[in-house]
Amino acid sequence: MGEGVVGKQVAILVLRASGIDVAPTDGGMHEIASNDYSETIRLPECLDRKLVHHLSRKFKVPIHHFFNPQMGGVPPNPADQN
Amino acid sequence: MENELTLRHNLEGASAIVATEGDVCVVGIGNLRVVIVQDGHAWIAHGLEIDYVSQGETIEEAKKNFEDGLRATVCQNLNVYGNIERVLSPAPAEVWTELIYTRGAQHKFFSQFTAFKLENVPEYSFEGISYLQVAGAGVGA
Known about the structure:
The complex is a heterodimer of chains A (82) and B (141).
Chain A: E1 6-7, H1 8-17, E2 21-24, E3 30-33, E4 38-41, E5 46-47, H2 49-59, H3 78-81
Antiparallel strand pairs in A: 1-5, 2-3, 3-4
Chain B: E1 5-11, E2 14-21, E3 24-39, E4 42-47, E5 53-56, H1 59-81, H2 93-100, E6 106-117, E7 130-132
Antiparallel strand pairs in B: 1-2, 2-3, 3-4, 3-6, 4-5, 6-7
């Protein structure tokens, strides 16, 4: 994975951890919505730099590949605590 | 026409018209400039007067994703907010500068009218789209 490229699942995880709603649509796209902005977009398996920058800017969320869910506000998986 | 509401937006040379009657909304977008540029292994389509981005493995896929995604975004905003004010914001200045002066960038002029029945995904397709490649851009599809 090249510099600035982020996988789709990581991008979705980061957005959701930051309070952004991300929901798949019937057409294979995703509805992404914050309190004051929403857009529908087809998320590829690998988001290249410009698309990552666009989503970061529009939803005011820094998105990067090295995302730690425990630092992003996502509660730990109970299965991992046992 | 009863319950008609027509709004005209001027977007740095592009234009958008919104008219509603009952639960049907017609949205027209004219002369929108979309820059297509390679980003790593992918192609990016980025609207200038409307700050919307799509990605594709080919130029055609990036264009299709842009058209499908923008149409769905307009529909989503009409259903959620009742207007498309939030969609009609231009890309920031640094994006214009970066995209316009990127070597090998293509410029696509984009015009469409689409009728949306609120709460439903529109069944209408885009018409009147013309493509313009900048002389000497030398981009292979």
